[in-house]
Design brief:
single chain, alpha+beta, about 15% helix
Length: about 160
């Protein structure tokens, strides 16, 4: 009996183990001539936790369940996917990728495939004023790993994360 409990505990720990990898963040603004490039780490835990930390920990993008927190230059922006349609779609796509499930479809979600790469573009219909106008996520369909995340802002600005 103790062996079964120990095996079950080990399996649960293996499923919830951290997956950590390096990330490069590129911030582009039309008003600034040179892009800002910083390095950092991403931690992923099942079922729906992602933490991307760059610039020595001062910038952070955190998805913890339905809550999204973005810290940039000391300013925190918080939203909940239950209240924000763009982040609701984003949350469902990220959760599917983390858990190796099929990417959901919807009116706001477009999926294209080229080789092993699946590009998921999330653009809200009936746009309202938001920090980001769309998200583009590139996923390796074989390994279900995130290769790139681009969050498009207004005026041709964007923040892009390249995962290694």
């Amino acid at each position: 009996m103790k062996a079964k409990i120990l095996i079950a505990l080990f399996c649960m720990m293996a499923c919830c183990a951290n997956a950590q990898q390096a990330v490069t963040k590129v911030t582009h603004s039309k008003a600034i001539k040179t892009d800002v490039v910083t390095k950092g780490d991403v931690t992923i835990k099942k079922p729906d936790y992602i933490c991307i930390t760059t610039d020595g920990g001062s910038d952070q993008l955190l998805m913890d369940g339905t809550k999204f927190t973005m810290t940039q230059k000391g300013k925190k922006h918080v939203t909940d996917s239950k209240k924000n349609p763009l982040f609701d779609d984003f949350h469902s796509v990220l959760k599917a990728v983390i858990n190796h499930q099929p990417i959901p479809t919807g009116n706001d979600i477009k999926v294209t495939t080229a080789g092993n790469d699946q590009t998921v573009t999330i653009t809200p219909i009936g746009k309202k004023r938001q920090m980001f106008t769309s998200f583009v996520l590139v996923v390796d369909s074989k390994s279900s790993s995130i290769k790139r995340l681009r969050m498009n802002g207004r005026n041709d600005s964007y923040t892009e994360y390249l995962f290694k």
